[in-house]
Specification:
heterodimer, A: mainly alpha, two-stranded antiparallel ribbon, 13 helices, globular, disordered N terminus, B: alpha/beta, six-stranded mixed sheet, 22 strands, 26% strand
Chain lengths: 321, 496
């Protein structure tokens, strides 16, 4: 056995070296914004940022899994809207709260599994399958509500978004829990092992006896279910489920994942990186708002940051070789 | 230096951060010769050729081409000088016709950039005829046989007026018959005065086609010799600097009970009525030409291709093998021909790859037992002498031989009883080859049964207890180790 004290730092660096770089980027951003606007680094603003980040951060966890398998999921934003409205309508039937929440998660899971089946059994490229689902789920949400939002829920339900424990908002706690679980799953479970193996080399994975179809479908199912969870939190926060909710969220989730160092080629990535990526996006939005930068310029800045982050990542990777 | 000398590379040195890849290497090339570049993997052959073809810049030294010193700046520059390379992996675009491939990037154009197709057709035809080929240049590259694709590569190189042609393992994917074709082409090129650098691991080829040989070892040149003054064992000694008393250190293990039996197996992939059996401790060599159905047989047994009729028994029990997963559960392991594409997950670590087929054993309720995993990984890494700085090293950074050992360990770890080797030593250097053969001996001694598909006749003859020859999806014959000779097997494979 290797002595743990010596083995750990190198082990740690080999796994998280890239994430440390992204983290340094986040820190640099925080320091600059702090210098520019003192209000930035107040506890209430930081909690605000964390809360702003939750929805995208949770969706991005599923996206990270999907991208590690070498796929992509364009449907999560629409699936969020669809599971949101279906759950909202069950809430209005005054069914027990846990049941309604299960409906929200279940609809997301189902959509994700359909994606998975289309990709594995139907052999469609993930881009096409989820592009289709993006439109289908959005249309279904609009049909289901006839285009109108469903609003007004019990205090109990809304406390999922408004509650706090030790001043930390519940959604932030839920997000942290999701990340801890996802990290555990990726690093310590069979599903995690297979997720990396499938993305790294699907054929070798198949030849090593991995049920590639099953595990790939599971990963898309997971992404859908997390979109359902995001739908619950968003609906609770807005006290309204809207069929047009979650527009372009898939793109933000992809951006967070990619900024966090997950390779679109598959086979590598961490949720730790994705969390930092999601925080970078939220910090940037918040900081630019505080500075009074127009939303038009904000889009330009955010786009540039995404490109820059990946350029730096690629340059570092090249040098690493 | 004679008048025939086209190229001299003097005192070439190449360093990468932290590594000296080449140190004072000398290399000289004459008109119309086939100059073999010989050395183990990592000896510096590829680096030297990459410098010559402009892919790398030398750190020090001199290149004299046609009597004048040159600095080869990039691959394009090398091409204009007349230095072309036919790579192991072809750089052809499968969906374009042969002609367009030959002139890719320098298409003859009419006005306004419209490609002059008739000119392409005409010149491509000439280039192919010059090689003694009668393929229609309008055919798509993807429909060609590997050997034909290689000829297209050669034609492409020649249409650039190549004076030096670098061929890296040109016969790796060819059948015996196709190799004969290739050699005929090479001889034709020699007559035209083209100088050919020929890199190969197959010793027997060197004597057939080579004029001179330069041996590299650990980034230094050992020397240049006339091929017909050297013997195989001498060359091997120069390459590895250790005596390989036996190329094939076959040890016969005691033959145990039957472990695998295949009965009248037929598949849509072209196998017809295949029956054979395999015993514990036995190596069954499977010989045959490319396309004889050898790989298809392995795929069918391993659950990759659908079986239309027939049965597979393991230890006397009929198995329903419908996927690699069920094949592995039945005790099979498959070392595929293409390690990188099918055997390994390159971006993952040694440990992850090694344990990939045994995840079920190392997990309970879906949660991995990382201690057990690490224990198994370090055990096999030690037992098989896998050279890696740590278990967390990505396998992509290991050498070919060590990668092969990782694949082997994967199946040892999953406790396979029957190992199917498909071309076990392709692209592996002499030292690692011997080690893989030793491992096969150890496997059979431990009671494992091995089915070994190989296109290297000497390997089949050297390592097998029995040899099964396939032709056209059927078993064409079976020989014991004693009664088999290269000629008999080839005749059987060709159906003569």
């Amino acid at each position: 056995m290797r002595p743990r004290g010596i083995a750990l730092p190198q082990h740690f660096l080999s796994h998280y070296g890239r994430q440390l770089g992204t983290l340094a980027g986040l820190m640099a951003m925080v320091i600059v914004l702090w210098a520019l606007t003192p209000h930035f680094l107040t506890i209430s603003n930081l909690l605000n940022i964390a809360e702003q980040a939750t929805i995208i951060a949770i969706i991005a966890v599923g996206m990270t899994f999907v991208i590690i398998t070498g796929g992509i999921d364009l449907s999560v934003g629409s699936v969020l809207a669809f599971s949101g409205v279906v759950m909202a309508s069950t809430l209005q039937l005054e069914v027990p709260l846990p049941l309604a929440l299960l409906v929200g998660l279940g609809v997301g899971l189902l959509c994700g599994l359909v994606n998975g089946m289309l990709i594995t059994v139907g052999r469609l490229p993930p881009f096409i399958a989820t592009l289709g689902m993006m439109s289908v789920a959005r249309g279904a949400a609009l049909m289901f509500t006839e285009g109108r939002p469903i609003s007004g829920f019990s205090e109990n339900f809304r406390s999922l978004a408004t509650g706090e424990v030790l001043r930390i908002p519940t959604p932030v706690l839920i997000m942290i829990a999701v990340y801890i679980m996802a990290h555990f799953v990726l690093r310590r479970t069979k599903l995690g092992r297979y997720t990396y193996a499938i993305g790294g080399n699907e054929e070798a994975a198949l030849l090593s006896g991995i049920n590639v179809r099953f595990y790939k479908s599971m990963v898309y199912g997971l992404a859908g279910m997390l979109a359902g969870l995001a739908a619950i939190l968003l609906t609770a926060r807005l006290n309204s489920a809207q069929p047009i909710a979650g527009m372009n969220y898939e793109l933000d989730a992809i951006a967070a994942t990619v900024i966090g160092g997950t390779s679109l080629l598959g086979g590598e990535g961490t949720v730790v990186g994705t969390l930092i990526g999601a925080l970078i996006m939220a910090v940037l939005r918040n900081g630019l708002n505080l500075l009074g930068v127009s939303s038009f310029i904000q889009q330009v800045v955010i786009g540039s940051v995404i490109i820059l982050a990946v350029l730096i990542d690629m340059a570092l990777k090249k040098r690493g070789k | 230096m004679t008048d025939d000398t086209v190229l001299q590379m003097r005192q070439i040195r190449k360093t990468f951060p932290g590594v000296v890849a080449l140190d004072n290497v000398d290399f000289e090339l004459r008109r119309g010769e086939v100059h073999i570049l010989l050395g183990e993997n990592g000896a510096g052959k590829s680096t030297l050729m990459k410098i010559l073809s402009g892919a790398y810049q030398k750190s020090a030294g001199q290149i004299v081409f046609d009597g004048a010193e040159v600095e080869i700046k990039n691959p394009k520059h090398a091409q204009t000088l007349g230095i072309s390379t036919v790579y192991q992996e072809f750089n052809l675009i499968p969906h374009l016709p042969i002609g367009e491939n030959i002139f890719l990037g320098r298409e003859p154009v009419r006005f306004a950039g419209v490609i002059d197709r008739s000119a392409i057709l005409e010149e491509a035809k000439n280039a192919l005829v010059g090689l003694g080929l009668t393929i229609d240049p309008r055919r798509l590259v993807k429909n060609l046989r590997v050997a034909e694709q290689q000829m297209v590569e050669v034609a492409k190189a020649l249409s650039l007026d190549a004076r030096i042609l670098i061929m890296d393992e040109p016969t790796a994917a060819l059948t015996e018959h196709e190799i004969v074709e290739l050699f005929a082409t090479i001889r034709r090129l020699k007559e035209k005065g083209v100088a050919i650098v020929y890199i190969s691991h197959r010793m027997e080829e060197l004597f057939e086609i080579g004029d001179r040989v330069t041996v590299l070892r650990d980034g230094r040149s050992v020397g240049t010799y006339d091929v017909n003054e050297m013997s195989k064992s001498e060359l091997i000694r120069l390459m590895v600097n250790r005596e390989l008393t036996e190329l094939f250190p076959k040890e016969h293990a005691s033959r145990g009970p039957e472990v695998l039996r295949v009965e009248s197996l037929s598949t849509k992939s072209g196998l017809k009525d295949i029956s054979f059996s395999l015993h514990k401790g036995e190596v069954l060599g499977v010989a045959g030409l490319l396309g004889a159905g050898r790989t298809e047989l392995a795929r069918a047994i391993f659950g990759l291709d659908h079986i239309s009729s027939g049965n597979i028994y393991i230890n006397g029990v009929a198995q329903k093998i419908s996927s690699p997963r069920s094949a592995i559960k039945s005790g099979l392991g498959f070392l595929t021909e293409d390690r990188k594409a099918q055997g390994l997950v390159l971006p993952l670590s040694v440990e992850r790859n090694l344990c990939l087929s045994s995840v079920d054993r190392f997990s309970s309720w879906g949660v991995m037992n990382r201690k057990e995993e690490r224990k198994a990984a370090s055990r096999y890494t030690e037992e098989l002498h896998i050279k890696t700085p740590s278990l967390d090293q990505k396998v992509v950074f290991l050498s070919g031989g060590n990668q092969q050992k990782v694949v082997l360990s994967k199946w040892l770890c999953s406790e396979a009883e029957v190992f199917i080797f498909d071309e076990p030593t392709r692209g592996v250097d002499v030292g690692a080859k011997a080690e893989i053969y030793q491992l096969m001996n150890r496997l059979t001694a431990a009671g494992v049964a091995i089915m070994m598909i190989s296109s290297e006749m000497l390997e089949v003859l050297g390592m097998s207890d029995r040899i099964m020859v396939m032709r056209g999806g059927r078993i064409a014959g079976e020989f014991s180790a004693e009664e088999s000779t290269q000629e008999r097997i080839l005749q059987c494979a060709l159906g003569e």
